[in-house]
Amino acid sequence: MEYVNLGKTGLKVSKICLGCMGFGEMDRGGVPGKTNEEEARKIIKYALEQGINFFDTANYYSLGASEEIVGRAIKDFANRDEVVIASKLYYPMFDGANAKGLSRKAIFTEIDKTLKRLQTDYLDLYIIHRWDYTTPIEEVMEALNDLVRMGKVRYIGASSMYAWQFIKANSISEKHGWTKFISMQDMYNLLYREEEKEMIPMCQYENIAITPWSPLAHGALVKAADAPRSDGVGALQNEYQLESDREIIKRVHELAKRYEVSASQIALSWVYSKPYVTSTLVGASKIQYVEEAIKAFDIRLTKEDIQYLEAPYVPHTQYGFR
Question: Which residues are catalytic?
């Protein structure tokens, strides 16, 4: 496994980050999990054995169940000081006027609950899941800075927002001498490349770590171009899927056949080929998917392959920010 610095920090992370959104219980609430704890522990243990040291979860995943599972597994299978744990906050964890968002009250409440569930004294990376339009960004950044000063958080990051918002937040922190965001977790795959217009160039210029999510486009790149999606996450992708996307999917499967690998490995190999990607979030409900993601590093797409995959792309409406 290859390790790289997380942006401009000295923190070393594996080139694959295990996304733990699917760990938990279907009926608990939040983003429903589909992988029970027994299976999730096997996946986490396997990932650790393969050298993956970067794990991403969120309080909203199965309303805390994912964090609980990750916490117990890391405690049993790993040296806490050797792993990098990231979690996120923004979405509501209970019913009420103050249940959602990034107010100082919410941030201070949720960090303690997250740390308890993860059975750790600190988070390596605390990420705001989305931009909060109801809370002044000054309040958000000051509260996050205080968590760093208190030792509860080592670094802070952001996810899925407009580039101007990210710049504004870091500019305010720089003005006040507060901790700045060091990473951006945005959606990026062969079917959704809108981040190439502003966010990615900005991150490159500022040496911000890029840790993309959904490299398989909610699974759309894995299935045949005309295959229907039945799950809730896939419905989001179908709503924005263009006719040109179907051609891209066909080309992914064509190259997969030529290289004698899976379509997911071709899609991941494309993401890996981008030098500005720091670590790719790979969600896995089976050990097999982690194994495939690791083996995808051995695929060397040619310049012609990459151009062939990218050629049909046309601009999409930006989405996924709320």
Answer: 61
Sequence-separated (6 or more) residues with CB below 8 Å from residue 62: 23, 24, 25, 28, 29, 30, 31, 32, 33
Residue type for 247, please? E
- What does the mean pLDDT of the chain come to? 93
Residue ranges per domain, the chain? Answer: 3-220+276-290
What CATH topology corresponds to 3-220+276-290?
TIM Barrel (3.20.20)
**Angle 205-103-139 from CA coordinates, rounded to 5°:** 55
CA–CA separation, 116 and 165 (whole Å)? 31
CA 12 to chain centre: 17
At residue 90, φ and ψ (nearest 5 deg) are 160, -50
Structure tokens at 105: 């009250």
3-state secondary structure of 199: helix
Summarize pLDDT for 270-289 with one digit per residue, the tens.
Answer: 999 999 999 999 998 999 99
Going by C-beta distance under 8 Å and a sequence separation of 6 or more, which residues neighbour residue 32? 24, 25, 26, 62
